[in-house]
Amino acid sequence: MDKVFLERPSVNEVLRDKIRKYKKEHSRLSSNQIARRLGLPPSTFHRLEMGDVKNPGLDICVTVLNGLASKKDTAEFVREYFPEVHESLYGHFYETQTQNLISDDVVQYFKDESTYKMMIKATTHHGLSENEVLQEYGRQGHKIFMKLAADGTIKNKNGRFFHSDDLQRVNTETTIKLSNLILNEMVNEVRVHGNPINSKHDICYQSVDGSKVKDELKQLASEFSYNVRKIMLSPENRGEDVFFVSNLIRKID
């Protein structure tokens, strides 16, 4: 059995520690007052505080964590201690957040080496200014972006182009093309500067038993995608810098 799993605190220990930390930070509040705030019977709260509830249900766990900790703590707890629930919720989130496929007449600009960066920027939360478009592409480029805005693919607000309200995605072929364009730029950075200034890239390859590692690697890729999206889509992380992150698992035939 995994040693890390054996050393992981139990559910009741996590809740007990969260309660004790909260009480230490809010010393004026009694256990009964905190219980009322959480909407829990004082007797139940007392047992949680003592660590006497051996297998607290998900509803109680979420109630305590949402009331005493951050939403991030709650999400991480569910992901670690209730993986089936997390997988179901994340699967629903992923499906609903990626269902809008960008149309073929727009995808061409993502695949074009001269325009892909502008399209990436224009479909981020920060957006792309009209001045940048004019500087890069002149009037013709500005005309293209105004058409995309008119079609509703992106929006023009106060002189900046943004993606539509719904998150969008490009097809698999375009995703691969974008990855190639980014990798080529990284190679050029290495050639010119000796190391990629703004990049981090690593690969690992080895002969293995595919039947043994395939599922584990797929799970690892899924976990990686989850963590990347969590970081990228968090409102508190929004800013002007555009990062491109991808994962690749490929059997070499």
Report on this model:
Helices cover 62% and strands 6% of the residues. With 253 residues, the protein is mainly alpha-helical. It folds into three domains: 3-96, 434 Repressor (Amino-terminal Domain); 100-199, Arc Repressor Mutant, subunit A (Orthogonal Bundle), CATH 1.10.10; 202-253, no CATH class. The strands form two sheets. A three-stranded antiparallel sheet has the order 2-4-3. A two-stranded parallel ribbon has the order 1-5. A hairpin with a 2-residue loop joins β3 and β4. α2 runs parallel beside α5, α3 crosses α4 (42-50) and α8 packs parallel to α11.
Summary of the model, kept short:
This is HTH cro/C1-type domain-containing protein. With 253 residues, this protein is mainly alpha-helical.
Defining key terms:
3-stranded antiparallel β-sheet; 62% helix; extended; 3 domains; mainly alpha; 434 Repressor (Amino-terminal Domain); 253 residues; 5 strands; disordered N terminus; Arc Repressor Mutant, subunit A; two-stranded parallel ribbon
